[in-house]
Every structure is written in C-alpha cells, then in structure tokens.
What does this fold into?
Amino acid sequence: MERTSRSGLGADRAGFAVKAAVFLGVGFAGAAPLVPLAQVVGLHAPQLLPLFGVPIAVLFAAWWFGRQRLREGVTDRLTGLPNRAALHLAAGQAAAARARHALVLIDLDRFRSLNDTLGHLAGDRLLVQVAQRLQSLAVDTGALVARLGGDEFAVLVPEPPEEPGALLRLARGFAAEVAVPIQFGGLQLILESSTGVAVLPDHAPDAESLLRRADIAMVHAQRSRAGVAVYQAGQEEDTPLRLGLLGDLRRALDQGEVEIHYQPKVAFDGSVVGLEALVRWSRAGRGPVSPEEFVGLAESSGLMPQLTDYVLEAAVSQLARWREQGIVVQVAVNVSPRDVLRTGFATGVAERLARHGVPADALQLEITERLLLEDGARAAETLEELRGHGVGMSLDDFGTGYSSLVRLRRLPVGELKIDRSFVSRMVADDHDAAVVRCSVQLAHSLGLTVVAEGVEDDETWERLHRMGCDAVQGWLVSAALPAEAATAWLRTRTVESPETLRKTPARPVPPRP
It folds into this structure.
C-alpha cells in the first residue's frame, strides 16, 4: 500500500497533470470546429486538405508553448528543482488538506564570498551539487525539495516526527548532507548552512505563514550560532526591529558612522603594551546600540566580513597616523571564526598593512576558542600564514570555550587573554581565582603572554600580579577611548612592545596608573 505521507505530493503531481490535460483539451477544443469542415472538403475537394495543416500546427504550437510556460513557471532553471511558486502551491495544498508537514529552510552561509572567489559559473555548479544531494536524501521520504532562489533551499517533509528532538535530528540530517566536503577543482570545500524548521499546522495555518516562520527560525539559527533551530512562538515579534537595525548598520558602515575606540593593555609597571580596538555605534536618532547586539546581528546576517574589514581599515590607518606622530604601539582587532575561515583573509590583511606602510607586528588579531571547534585545522593554516607575514595572534575569552591542550598548542598564538567573567569574580570566588591561576600557569608553560580582562579594582590588580599575570586591561586602567583621546593618553605613558614584556621578569607592585 502506498504511504499516506506521500498524499500531499501526489496531489501536487496530480494538480500539474490536470493543468497539462487542460492545455491539451484547449488544443483539441480549438481544433474541433475544423473537423466537420475538413470532412466536407475531403469529400468534395481533397486537394485543399493540406491547407488545414497550418491552423492545426499553429494550435499545436500554442498548446506546446503554453505547456512549457507552465513548466517553467514552477521549475528552477539552474537545478531543475521546483521553485518557490511550486513550494508555495504544495504547502498550500497540504494546508487545505490539514496534512501535517515540516518545512526545512536551508541557507548556505558565506556563499557570496565563494561566488566572488571562484566565479559565478563555479558557484552555479556548487548549487547544482547541493540540489542533487538534498534530492537524493529526500527521495525515500516523499519530501519535496525546492530552490527558493540564490543560495536558499527548502524541503517540505510530509508527516514529520512530533518530538522536538527528532524534528531537530531530521533538520540536522539535511544540514549534514550539505556540509559533506565537496572536491572542486583540486580544492576541498565545506559548505556551512543555517537551517530553520516550522511545522504545519503546529506553527502556521497556511503556506505563507509557514514560509515566514521557517525563515524566522533560520535567522535565529544564524544568530544563536546553533546552525539549526525550530520555530518557537513569539520569535517573530522582534524581526521588523532587527531588520531595521540591520539596515541602519549597513548604512552606518557605508557612510563611516561606526566609531572605533581603543582600550589600553598595561604591564604592572604602568607601561603600555598595546591597545584593543573596540567598535562603537550610535544609531541616528536612537542613541548608542550595545556592541553585543549589533556585532551578534552582523555575524548572524552575513554582515560580519564587512564589519571586520571596516574595523581593520580604521585600526591600521590609525596605527599609521600614530607612527607618523612618533607613537609606536600595537593594536589588537577582534576577528570572528568566519573571518579567519574566509578564503584570502590572510593575504587581505597583509595587503592592507602594506598599503598603509604599517609593519605587520604592529597588528594583533584576537580570536576566540570557538574557532578551535569550527575548523581547527583550516584555522591553523590561516593563522600560520598570518604569522608568516608577521601579524601577532591572541586567544581571547580564554576559559569560556572548549579548548584542549592539543588544539591550543596547534594555534600559533602568542598571547592568552583570560575572560573577564573569571577575573571580575576572582576576589570573591575561590573557584574563579583557581581558574585564573591555572590559566596563567598553563599559558606560561606554553610560552604565552597572559593578559587579564575586566580589571576594575586594586585588589584584583594586586592578586593578578602575585599570580604572575603579565598585563591587565579594564576600567581600573582606562575605559575605551576615541582615537583623539587615546592619542592624548598615550603621549603621557611609556610604550613597551609585547616582545619586551615576555622577556621582562615580574616587577614589584607599584601604584596603579
């Protein structure tokens, strides 16, 4: 017996068959008035019968072209998959029949950069491969696979599992199929994706709502970095606000309205060993926006490469200005895992430094432990390339991720930054103090410099010094300062290179700067 889960798709195919039959019927109906006349002519003037071939041919051509237009209207030309219109029709029929279906929406991450790097023809070939993979995975389930446009695909699954965990596993199966390495022109490419799931009728009563809520779930998957998310009631409430915020952020980057502030890192004798570039944005007419909010939005929306390039350009050009004024200092810039995994990232950084005439060791890139999980081997290659150019590396937010000693040793970092969540509580919490102490010892055993973030009081300063920490950063030393204020602050301080810091023994605790 045929599975009832295929009923919705069977209805879709039947619907298309009916439409084709209608076109055929129209063709025959158009020719029907000619039949009696042709009989009369055949009896009395058979030599005129060939004249009937022209109108019949015209009617047949009209029918054929009509059928082609119908097919093209519901088919994606590149992949041959059903398109958005076909998906909408299938979902609408499922909704009308009150049949339970899950819509799995899959968006390929950073596909535009692949297109720019490999070329659009290569990008099209990759999309075809993704389409074939999804189609082969879905064929046994009776699911409908569609390409919605660009790098976005959808799978409409009949009778999905009701248990949320099983629903997530279903979606992860499609995401995992997309992520299987592709051998392409001598390269091994791994396509990451963000996947959102919504269920009919659990989450939406009709096709339009189903598409919208699967898309909302996909955005949350990107924002939370989970990769896959199932729609939950209320998630769409902030979507218009987020879309407006994203549009304003794009405009602010295009118009140079995002500011870069610089927070100093100092040794325990008060000498400056570097500054961290921190991004600040005041939204026009609405005031400051939390960096956690708009940086997270940039990362989940694909805007992160543009934001990182903006900060790098600002920081490197500021380094050039400081060197012209006789201030030689190192500046650190935070980069996300997706930045490091971008093709050509290391070369782009080196070219930017050369364009501004800034030596590579004046720049330091801060990465997080999450990079070790996403693609440690590929990240290590990029970081080695950066180190080959002379760029410094720092492991930021240490203690909040999942680093292993093996992975940590593979990364060519010269500095380890202990996360503020441990530093800020180390005076009151013995456990956090133990984490900080062990982190300092671990870093020194690997030959790394240690910087503690979030230092806000004298007792924390003194404890860190006794533990052998090399430098500190936080409000006790200075808040993050705009470029002009940072310049004035630097003129009154002694600047010391991080390399000197590593070679300098611990000093007595002086009064804080």
About this structure: Confidence is low (pLDDT under 50) at residues 1-31, 62-72, 501-513. The two ends are 81 Å apart (CA to CA). The chain is about 50% helix and 20% strand.
